[in-house]
Design goal:
The chain is α+β, with helices and mostly antiparallel strands. Helices cover about 20% and strands about 30% of the residues.
Length: about 190
């Protein structure tokens, strides 16, 4: 399986293919839950198109055989309104860590390890844009399987395999599971 990780910068069409809502009048996240959930459903495509046209872009995309297959949202924490105002995911220090907040894998490409490729690409993207540290907020799995809906934040095992270290247990949850703040120092 040939996997290529590309920045979303200049790749709105790939972003739309993975994350966009195709059903007319359909509702969806559009990766806005952490950015600014106040943006109305009808305005989300234009908002994310603008994000994909503005450096450093809103994240990275996985392409398999040239087809858009997956998405990872990664950007400076300060660009995520929900994180800046979070009562459940605390700040660790004064640095503007880059935050990995979600993954989306298109159904035909699931269970093939793309989240590992996406996380590695997200770290690389952050480093190329001067990040000192990258953090994520995955769920603790304790050896059990995570459902697709709750697993969008990743797992502690995924992050550990990518060189992240657990910093603290947050009071945030996904699918009833505890989320950890995990970090990887780059500088």
């Amino acid at each position: 399986m040939e996997v290529e990780i590309r920045p979303a910068l200049g790749n709105y069409d790939g972003f739309f293919e993975v994350v966009g809502v195709k059903k007319p009048g359909g509702r969806g996240c559009w990766c806005m839950a952490y950015r600014d959930s106040r943006v109305g459903n009808d305005d989300r495509p234009a908002y994310m198109r603008a994000e994909c046209e503005t450096a450093p872009g809103p994240g990275v995309l996985a392409y398999v055989g040239g087809e858009p297959a997956g998405w990872c949202s990664v950007a400076p924490r300060s660009s995520y309104r929900r994180l800046m105002n979070s009562r459940t995911i605390p700040f660790v220090d004064d640095r503007d860590a880059w935050s990995v907040v979600c993954f989306v894998i298109r159904p035909p490409y699931r269970r093939q390890g793309l989240m590992h490729d996406l996380l590695a690409g997200a770290v690389r993207h952050a480093a190329e844009h001067g990040a000192e540290v990258v953090e994520g907020y995955p769920v603790l799995t304790a050896g059990t399987r995570v459902d697709v809906i709750s697993g969008y934040v990743g797992t502690t095992t995924l992050f550990e395999r990518a060189g992240f270290e657990p910093v603290l247990e947050t009071s945030a949850h996904s699918g009833g599971r505890v989320r950890w703040l995990m970090r990887r120092e780059l500088a």
